[in-house]
Give the backbone structure.
Amino acid sequence: MTLGNLLFNLFAAFTLVTAAAVVFSKNAVNAAMCLLLSLVGVAGLFVALDAYLLAFLLLLVYAGAIVALFLFIIMLLDTKGDTRPSVHRLSLFAKFVAVLLVAAGLFTLLTHLRLETPGVGAVPAVGASLKLYAVQLFTTYLLPVQIIGFLLLIAMLGVIVLSKKFEGLDDIK
Amino acid sequence: MIHASLNAYVAISALLFAIGLLGVLIRRNTLVVFMCLELMLVASTLALVAFSRFNGTMDGNVFVFFILTVAAAEVAVGLAIIVALFRKRQTVQVDELNSLKN
């Protein structure tokens, strides 16, 4: 086993364990911290896949901005963990069926996964080059980039409107 | 360098997605449900990057770029909605947010 293999196994196990900790931790702050660790694991896997820019962006956007935002909101709302178990029988049954379906799908996928892996060095690591991102984003994907810009603007305006307190019609003016 | 097979990456991605979906299904705190949604998004980006790497194409990577942006916008709006909801109802538990029912 090479060092690369070892690191891959390490990051994969780390990602999955911390992701499970997000689901099963009672405290919301602990869940956010575990989400952060899980994202670090995924960034490590991105590095193993030679997608350095995306690993960096994942840490910057998710770990830097999104998890920090989550922590702010958790502190702000000061909520307790899950207190009461779910009581509705129909929703319990629906959850049970859904979990069963996911487990069945996962089992089928993992037992039938036969994707072809090319040999070492057979495929160029295109994700490692920054220039290719720029070329793609400003030629083929130029329209999506513009649309994403508008989406961010709309999201920003929406957040401002949502978080402002409107008492009556006079506040809008 | 390629350290692991494509199967391994897709399996990890599927497991991560399933863990996220499990969290969305069984947790009742809206904030944690939202975190699990993010986990599912990250799982799908991992699959995209892996497929992109093993096919030598750029499209998956660029899609991950867009997914990151949309996720950031989604989290901002979603958390603002949760805060507005908390102001109105004083709770973020999914079970207690049932005013559409009657």
